[in-house]
Amino acid sequence: MYLLTLVLHSLFRWVVLVLGALVVGRAVGGAKHNREWTSADDRAGLWLVITLDAQLLLGLALYLALSPVTRIVFADFGAAMVNAALRFWAVEHIFGMLAAVVLGHVGRFRMRRVDGAQRHRTTALFFGMALLAVLLSIPWPGMPAARPLFRLP
Which three-class secondary structure string do you get for the chain? Predict the structure, then answer.
């Protein structure tokens, strides 16, 4: 179960990143060209929030139940804080990803409360910050907690 969840979580990040780039790109383009808000803009934002939520659920399953790394962390949290790789998994990764999910939900809520070009600007701002939080919280190669870009079973 651990390996399957880990592979899904690893591969699904690319869906989140591609959708995030698409939504932010549409929003920036819509604001720049003063384009009307369309149902395609709305659906793209909805799908990004759904994928963020699904990724969060996979991550929480790993964090709370399945990962041997978090078992090590929870066994001695103080010692984990002085190890860069363990600290990344214990605090930095989950905090950054939770921030991204919150920003995505707040952005979706806020963009539905405004009209026209303001909707594109609000979407670009909140989903852009969510995408940045995701990018900063991924264990890229070269980091102390590095993971492969593509993890296959």
Answer: CHHHHHHHHHHHHHHHHHHHHHHHHHHHHHHHCCCCCCHHHHHHHHHHHHHHHHHHHHHHHHHHHHCHHHHHHHHCHHHHHCCHHHHHHHHHHHHHHHHHHHHHHHHHHHHCCCCHHHHHHHHHHHHHHHHHHHHHHCCCCCCCCCCCCCCCC
CA angle 151, 143, 21 (to 5 degrees): 65
Residues 26-49: pLDDT tens digits?
999 999 999 999 999 999 999 999
Q: Cα(129)–Cα(15) distance, rounded to whole angstroms?
A: 17
